[in-house]
Amino acid sequence: MTLVSTPAPRRSTAGSVLGDLSLAFAVLLLEAVVVAAVGFSAILSQWAAQSDRSEPLPVPVGHAVVLGLVAAGAALLAFSLLRRASSPVTAYSQVLVAVLVGLLTLAVAFPNTPARQPAPAPGVSSEPAVPGAGVCRSGGGNEECLRSGG
Asked: What angle do CA 92, 97, 102 make, to 5 degrees?
């Protein structure tokens, strides 16, 4: 008696591609919602912290940490999917997300904003408006002092 082995049923490539695209879309949508919520929260916290004070705005450390966790999660998911080679579209999209959110994390954590210069103290300026002329202390402008000779 001979045993006839039947080949294992092959998965439909259209079904696996559709499943891969659906997974990629769902994960990207979830990450987009989290990044948008963190961005909205960061904007509101910076808006609330703004005032006329001379100190620079605080760096939103908590927001940078959450973005870093999203980037790390995307990198781990990409690594896992690439290793199994089960969902290439999702894996490569997660590589892209990990890189982009990682760069966004660095931009949030280390903002390149120049330090605000303190406002000059109110009072008489020690620099004359015209080189070689003295400072007018009569209450008028420097032009008035120049016309009066002093």
From this structure: 130
Q: Which residue has tokens 């995307």? A: 74
Kindly list the domain boundaries of the chain, sorted by start residue. Answer: 17-50+57-112
Question: Could you tell me if residue 120 is left (phi over 0), alpha (psi between -120 and 50 degrees) or otherwise beta?
Answer: beta
* Residues 34 and 70 sit within 8 Å (Cβ to Cβ): yes
Spatial separation of the C-alpha atoms in residues 116 and 145, rounded to whole Å: 34
Q: Percent helix, strand and coil across the chain, each rounded to 5?
A: 60, 0, 40
Question: Which residue numbers in the chain have pLDDT < 50?
Answer: 9-10
d(CA 143, CA 135): 10
Structure confidence at residue 99 (pLDDT): 92
d(CA 80, CA 63): 26
Q: CB of 36 within 8 A of CB of 104?
A: no
Crossing angle between the packed helical segments 61-84 and 88-109, to the nearest 10 degrees = 160
pLDDT at 2: 64
Structure tokens at 138: 């009569």
pTM for this one?
0.58
